[in-house]
Amino acid sequence: MRRLHLLLVDNDPHIKNRMSQTLENDFSLQFVTSLPEAYENLSMVPLPDMLITEVYVENESGLDLCRYMRNTPALRNIPVMFLTTRATLQDKVTGFQAGADDYVVKPFDGRHLKARIRLLARIKRLERRTSA
Questions:
Q1: pTM for this one?
Q2: pLDDT digits (tens, 9 = 90+) for 33-53
Q3: What is the pLDDT of residues 93-123, one digit of tens each?
Q4: Buried b vs exposed e over 30-65: b needs ≥16 C-beta within 10 Å?
Q5: CA-CA distance, 72 to 55, in Å (whole number)?
Q6: Which residues on neighbouring strands pair with residue 51, listed in sequence order?
Q7: CATH number for the domain formed by residue range(s) 5-131
Q8: For residues 30 and 61, what is the distance between their CA atoms, to the nearest angstrom?
Q9: Is the dihedral of CA 42, 45, 50, 53 positive or negative?
Q10: Domain-by-domain residue ranges, the chain?
Q11: How far apart are CA 62 and CA 36, in angstroms?
């Protein structure tokens, strides 16, 4: 079975290292450190299977990136997970209102993160089967 390709958007080098250690054996990873890089990667083929982003990268909004994806037909069905330090209930509600499929708060447990990624992938596969 093909490994899922994850596009990870975060400018914190410690998070990049932690995510690499946690995910690289199970998934194909591509890291970018800014939202312009994320937009550029989302315009290329092949598209990632999933986007995992911080809510705020520098002074840019991952919420806007998520809204963009939900309003772009070619990107609409790519699962989006926020992996963020933003932990209030309002932050989570705002993330889901922007179109996120999942919201995980840092610091994260690696086993939990992998399980959430696999769950999102399974949900999207089921959605594709039922809509076909």
A1: 0.95
A2: 999 999 999 999 999 999 999
A3: 999 999 999 999 999 999 999 999 999 999 9
A4: ebbbebebbbeebeeeebbbbbbbbbebeebebbeb
A5: 19
A6: 7, 80
A7: 3.40.50.2300
A8: 19
A9: negative
A10: 5-131
A11: 11
